[in-house]
TrEMBL record:
Gene3D superfamilies: 1.10.287.70. One of its GO terms (cellular component) is plasma membrane. Residues 1131-1151 are annotated as: Disordered. This is Ionotropic glutamate receptor C-terminal domain-containing protein. GO terms for biological process: detection of stimulus involved in sensory perception. One of its GO terms (molecular function) is ligand-gated monoatomic ion channel activity. PANTHER family: IONOTROPIC RECEPTOR 20A-RELATED, IONOTROPIC RECEPTOR 56A-RELATED.
Amino acid sequence: MFSEAESVPLGIDSDPPITAPTARYKRNPTIAVSQQRADFAPIFIHYGTLVGMFEVRAVGREGGGAWFTPLSEVVVRARQIRRWSWCVTVVVVSEDPEFLSAFAKSSLQHRLLVWTTRLLVVTRLTLQQVHRLLSSHWTFSMMNAMVLNQQQESSGNRFSLYSHLPYSPQGGQVVQAASWRQPAHRSLHIKFSSLFPEKFSNFYGAIVNVSVLPYAPYWEETAREAEDGTLVKAYSGTDYELLHTMSTTLNFTIHVLPSSTWEEVGQLVADRVSFMSPMHHVPVAQRLKIYDFSYGYEYGSFAFSAATPSLRPRWQSLYYPLSDFVWLAVLAVLCFVPVSLYVVNLLASRLEFENKISFSVAIQMVTATLLSQNLSIQLPKSHANRALVMAWLLFAFIVGTVYRGNLTAALTLPKYPPRPETVEDMVETFDRISMPSYGGVFIENFKNSSYSVFREMGEKMFIIKSALEAMQRSRDLRESHVGWESYMATIIARHFIMADGSAQIYLGRESVSRTLTAWPLPHDAPFKRQVDAIMVTVLEAGLYEKWRSDFLDAVKKETREKQKKALEGEAEGSPEDTGGLVNALNLVHMQGPLLLLLLGLGGAGFVFAVEVLAFSSPFFTCGARWEAVRAILGQPESVKCSLVQLMHGLVSAQSVREMVGQFGIPVGVFEAQMANDVANDTWTTQLSQTVRQARKIRRGSWCMTVVVVSDDSDFLDAFAKSSLQHRLLVWTTRLLVLTRLTLQQVHRLLSSHWTFSMMNAMVLNQQQESSGSSFHGATINVAALPYAPYWDETVQEAEDGRSVKIYSGTDYQLLSVMCHYLNFKIYNIPTSTWKEIGQLVAERKAFMSPVHHVPVAQRRALYDFSYGYEFGSTDFCAAVPSLSPKWHSLYYPLSDYVWLAVLAMLIIVPASLYAVNLLANWLISENRMSLGVSSQTVIATLLAQDLPVKPPKTQAIRALVAAWLLFAFIVGAVYRSNLTAALTLPKYPPRPETIADLVKAFDRISMPPFSKVMIDDFRSSSTPVVKEMGEKMFLTSSVMEALQRTRDGRQAHVGWRTYLSVLIANNFILADGSAEIYLGRESVRQTLTAWPLPHDAPFKRQVDVIMVAVLEAGLYEKWREDILDAIKKETRRKQRQTRQEEEESKSSGDAGGLVSALSLVHMQGPLLLVLLGLVSAVLVFAAEKINGSECGARWEAVRAVLGQPETVQCSLLQLMHGFISAQSIHEVPMVGQFGIPVGVFEAQVASEAANDTWTTQLSQAVRQARKVSKAVVHRLSPNSGLYESVCLDAGELKALS
């Protein structure tokens, strides 16, 4: 507190500096400004502690009528007193209206007054002058100001208190708050409950100016036509909804001032023409000089956008399915196998007089079989040739299958080129980076950053007028754009989404910066308190998040409608329709084969031209050679120093770099972070590894600075011993220890270790002096239960064998920061339920519960809450639906109607084929095909088999068979492709994603044991779906047990999303990375969470201040990301370990990393089909057995028709020229009518053999045929007049001839 001698400067001649007070004033301090000191001192000294008395003399005036600088100096000094006080009353005494006007301007310019500062003007003016003074200045009209006017009357002095109400039912007016007379024999008249009335609780419908520009999803403008034909602007967006809520609560009308740039928007707020800018702004230092900010209501981030990399050229799809080494191996085998085949055939032909194959034929055969073609010639019969060809065919089959499968996968799941996802990648990739028009201050901050990546990014940045234009440039040019993430996401969704749903612009994963945003308000705005209160209420109710989600859903719906229209337009413009099954292939898809064909034609033309020219030398050499690249050496290497940081505890590495920058050039930086709660026995191992690595850096650097940060003297002792043992330090190595120890501990540390006493070491010690905000090391009771990732407990064994609890988590880290700054220790009271925790806080046995709670009404009745520090959501989880049975994969590729159509064709086509053949047999005596053979032919060709018989030569039958073969080819191709796609991308059954789906799908929904109040809220909700959900809810004793029941599919569970995500990641992730439980997309509830505190806790202010500081620094988000990254890392480790165990337990089969071996699970469909066929065959065999139908019955029927004795046996001689199946000749009726083929002799004569080779082959065949003793004769029967077949022996044949 100031003493009167030190704090009261009298006049302008003596101006001693105002010293900073050492404590807050206990009473209401008063600052008095007057032209005459004696006017007010005896009167107002009893209103408060008079800490500032300033006298301003009218020495002279400038030409403009303004007072000289002493008034400005008085206001500046008064503001210093006001800033060091909780509340201040400023009393201005003057009878000069010009002086009061000058004071109003100066106090506004130098920011003397805030709403909590009361201003009392004591004067003697006329009533008109008082009205003009109050209504013409912001200081008197808008701030918490009163005028005490003294009027001389005949009966005595009359005193009146006047105030200006800017908003009232009658508009802005000057009102008389109180009046009295002297002598005081009459009563005091007071019109208001307070002498300083509230001015901004109700605007009474007045117009309030705001300045803003469209910036989705926060503020949008659309023009619509009114009833009178005029265009009216309609506003929407999250911040407009928040402003509309304020206008409804405070009863004012919104008027948006026209503006063209964000600089103009800010200037309107700074000039107080606009009351606020209802748009989130980042409160950087440059802006804080111009205007103030409201309550920080949203965490957001600057992100960067860039063009989505295009796919590789289509022609490259031919090459992509196999790697370079596989292609080289295939090429080597293509060169080796023809040579081996030629050599083996050459040796076999010399030994066994086999037919010799030329080298070109061997190459043609190998290439053809690799391309899934038939063997072009009949191979020799040597076993060596057969073994070699069999091995090659197996190799070609495997390579072809793998190539086709990977080609299908490459076309189904195309692989995009890598794209920049971090800030470093963006800076390395792009030479120009744009920012919106308001980004000038951010570019300057980036250029002045200590982070080299930010500095380089700032140098590449430039301002662009429109974000849409910037993104168009990003799409067309090699540029990137940095802007607000939510705004860019909306722009991308509206303008850069293709008809197929792909985006032309993407947002990088890493944010450029993350910060808290607020609305700009004029400096010391008197209505800031009302604005902040409404903001907090809206945020705690979750309305802002609801508005955001509604707006984004509308944008997504609009985008989907555009995509749907675009797809419909493409479908109408395309004359082809595939029934929704597959898309027709166009020239873009067929670039690869067409380019390959053109390349082959070009190669063939080149070879032909070379052969025509008949060049002399068949070898060509390339004269071009690569020249060696010379290295530019001789540059002097600059001296580089390394910085090694060894941190123990919660310390910012960035702050350490800046602090020790004077000790060296931190070019190479090595950081080691060690937890401050590890046991002492683990320090040795960690320190040894860290010190050894640091020594390697020291030996490779010219100079090095080692920085050790720790508050633990034991850790520093261990470091000293370890650094000495592993020879970390030399004299040129500087050692700096940053710590917070007592002076005795520092002395002991420096004198007891060689490392600190003899080496080049310094200790930078920070001592915290006692203040009013300290618990002085006292133990504070808290109550918490494990609730990852906020609070977690692990039990470790100490050196003495005791079990020690170690705490971790985001909220524990936040509580640790509070412990450090408020100087207290933590004691966690043992509890078993969350209800018990709340009761301990309500009874003040626990000072707080450092785990987030939702501030519902029932809980507020028991205890208060801290600052709302996290937005979160209550979501539901359910079991991931299992895939359809594997046997279903045979059925899935085609729809039900397609299967019915195929089945109908399988019935219609054999019947049609049989009918056409029957008619042809009647008309032109064509060979007849039975209905069974027709069915066999149709089914075999549908299964991609050859024709089992040669069809008749009727053109009608040929046309029918050709149509069926084309149909079978298309159906088979579509089936195989869709079957591959179904196995590549399995289709999961639909699962509940919204609250409505959840209520329909499940009859029982569990909630954690502390959620009874939330269930009651759901059951009393006015929304039918939420009310029905509440009726199905019940409390569970354990969340883990509830999730296990959820996994089994018996129920769903509703809980905090982050906690459920951690539990699922730790306990319900399979080895392949898939989850057994999923979280629904729609949230059940979104709200702001806080810590429970006792009602009216006196330490709430300190807790809130530390929370805000930690949140604004981004530490809480950093702790959360670190914990979640550790959980993901542990999950991946478990998955990797599980996969290794599975691989070790498997057989020695290995697919080379290309494909996984198919198991019985994958082959369920074919195996079930085979079993079904076997069962059907057994049933048919049993039916034939029961009916007495045996294989010999057919022969008996034939013998009965022909009348031949049973002993007659005829032989059938088949001499075939061309590609005709002997099996088909045996069984078709064409041959059956010529004899009973009991003994069969077959001779094959190749159709492509030369005419001169027929003689040899035919001679051999005829000589062997002469050995047949009986033959078949087809002759006309004299009895029946019909053709009959008889068997004749050699003698009968000779007589017949």
